[in-house]
Amino acid sequence: MTSPLPLVTPADCMLLLVDLQAGLAFGVSSIDRQVLRDNAVAVARTANVFKLPVVASTSASKVYSGPMMPQIQAAIPDVLPIERRNMNAWEDEAVRSAIIATGRKRLLIAGLLTEACVSFCALSAKAEGFEVSVIADACGGLTDASHQLALRRMEAAGVTMTSWIQVLLELQRDWTRHETYDGARAIVEAHAGGYGIGLAYARDMIHPS
């Protein structure tokens, strides 16, 4: 599927998950940590449903941060996180090479922390000619102010801000697209609050069991 519109499609984008680890989440105060985790799970499940290439990276997993959160790993069981030392995943040759190897020039990023590992990578990829979107509600910052300032800095550099539900709806775009309908709808029902409750209600009212 290709489109002349400036919207992401399953054929032209990939997902980078950066440092979605419990040890780092402890320091997040810009968003409720459970909401952050649930949003990140929704992002990972969305990538799985739409068959997006996924690159995941972790840092200090053995000494402080811990492994990628198990709920997120369970949504993408075949993705092995790449361990690195530096804050900027783009400066890690293994991560950067894995991203480039996908052949996709549209990069979706979610992770921790917004002020450092997310923004450094987003700004670096943008400077190298990638079209970068940050899934802002699947990112967390140390404070709300520093999170918002990091988002503003990225946006000023040409990085697009989006949300996990917008990414899912942008990839689906047509509820008659049957090959991804069940998977996308299941994610919405599980993670999209009132919208998901409404979808489940409509289904049960139209097709009661």
Description:
The protein is built from nine helices and six strands; from the N terminus they run βααβαβαβαβαβααα. By secondary structure, the protein is α/β, with parallel strands linked by helices. The chain has one domain: Isochorismatase-like (Rossmann fold). Strands 3-2-1-4-5-6 form a six-stranded parallel β-sheet. α3 links the parallel β2 (54-59) and β3 (82-84). α5 (114-127) packs parallel to α6. The longest helix is centred in the N-terminal third of the chain and has 17 residues, at 33-49. The protein starts with 12 loop residues before the first strand and ends with a helix. The model has no long low-confidence stretch (mean pLDDT 94). Pfam families: Isochorismatase. GO terms for molecular function: hydrolase activity.
